[in-house]
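4.2 Preliminary Data

To establish feasibility before requesting continued support, the project team ran the inverse folding procedure on a target of 335 residues. The structure was first converted into the token representation described in Section 3, and no sequence information of any kind was made available to the design step. The complete token record follows.
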């Protein structure tokens, strides 16, 4: 049998740097494929901030912690090389939750495995304008935040994968968009490339003071971050505003929950609606989102900048880049 390299979680990480203290690259001989399993030669790995939470011992997250000693998991894009499921023929281009490995072994029903459109000129768009981050942006902005034309939408971690798409979905739906991100280069990207109406560098500027300039206040907020950014936004929402809680990346490196916002009373004072959402709950609705995402992509109205690292052995470099905010757009690893 062939061998396969994979990343193993040995200890719960501390912080967002030096991951090689906690994970190691291992090699094993592949065992024969079990009934119902599918084997995929991984071409790209998606680096997703939410996976950082799975590495903690927290049992109150949206999914159980990854056991120590387990293979690290994440979204993979690649081709089927062996299959015990007739829906996934060898050669098919597929995406699903697999392992950080050269070859991922998946059970389709447990991993959200799906065959993706092989005719797309740039297959990486299955991690971009047509990927899970795009579905997240679409559901969060359109359904949860229920953004209407002419309204003001704020997006945090706005220059990252999910945030940059949320900004564009908001803009495409006719909203005025405020992007909040770390650093001047990201703010330039938001203004010049994504066409947002206002960009705020939360590392250098007073977020609350800048948001106070939004006429009438913010009608909607797509939050990827939590913590002080959420606090600043709540104080600047319009009455009857909607807050879509997509992520809380400011707290993923901690073993305890991120504290709630000090200005939570504004939920009552301004009659706000706050709702969390989680894209795996929407997976079966993919066919509904894709035509709109595809149309925007083809029209150049939904773009993704990629931050690409080469080689399975460099996964931790890419992962750290994402969690420490070195990225603009989507962080991927090409195998
Ligand atoms: N609900 C769902 O189903 C769902 C699905 C996909 C993603 N998400 C969420 O979307 C968010 C973004 O994830 P992603 O995978 O697309 O990653 P990403 O935005 O491409 O990268 C993470 C970004 O988070 C920002 N960040 C890190 N620590 C921060 C802090 N303490 N305060 C403020 N910003 C911080 C950094 O940007 P800055 O330089 O701007 O700080 C960094 O670029 C995460 O919260 C993730 O959980 C949720």
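Position-by-position output of the design step:
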């Amino acid at each position: 049998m062939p061998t396969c390299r994979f990343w193993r979680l040995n200890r719960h990480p501390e912080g967002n740097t030096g991951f090689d203290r906690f994970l190691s690259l291992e090699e094993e001989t592949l065992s024969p494929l079990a009934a119902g399993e599918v084997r995929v030669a991984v071409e790209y790995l998606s680096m997703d901030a939410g996976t950082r939470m799975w590495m903690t011992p927290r049992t109150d997250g949206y999914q159980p912690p990854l056991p120590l000693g387990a293979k690290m998991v994440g979204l993979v894009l690649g081709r089927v090389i062996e299959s015990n499921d007739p829906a996934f023929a060898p050669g098919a281009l597929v995406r699903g939750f697999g392992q950080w490995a050269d070859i991922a072994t998946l059970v389709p029903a447990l991993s959200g495995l799906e065959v993706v459109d092989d005719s797309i000129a740039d297959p990486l768009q299955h991690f971009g304008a047509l990927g899970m981050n795009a579905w997240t942006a679409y559901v969060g902005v359109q359904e949860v935040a229920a953004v209407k034309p002419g309204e003001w939408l704020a997006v945090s971690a706005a220059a990252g994968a999910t945030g940059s798409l949320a900004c564009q979905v908001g803009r495409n739906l006719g909203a005025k968009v405020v992007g909040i991100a770390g650093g001047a280069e990201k703010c330039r990207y938001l203004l010049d490339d994504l066409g947002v109406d206002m960009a705020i560098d939360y590392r250098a500027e007073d977020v609350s003071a800048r948001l106070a300039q939004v006429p009438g206040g913010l009608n909607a907020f797509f939050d990827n971050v939590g913590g002080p950014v959420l606090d600043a936004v709540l104080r600047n929402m319009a009455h009857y505003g909607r807050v879509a809680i997509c992520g809380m990346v400011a707290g993923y490196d901690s073993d305890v929950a991120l504290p709630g916002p000090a200005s939570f009373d504004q939920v009552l004072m301004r009659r706000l609606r706050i709702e969390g959402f989680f894209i795996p709950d929407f997976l079966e609705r993919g066919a509904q989102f894709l035509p709109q995402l595809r149309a925007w992509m083809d029209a150049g109205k939904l773009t993704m900048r990629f931050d690409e690292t080469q080689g399975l052995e460099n996964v931790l470099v890419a992962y750290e880049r994402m969690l420490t905010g070195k990225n603009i757009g989507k962080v991927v690893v090409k195998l």
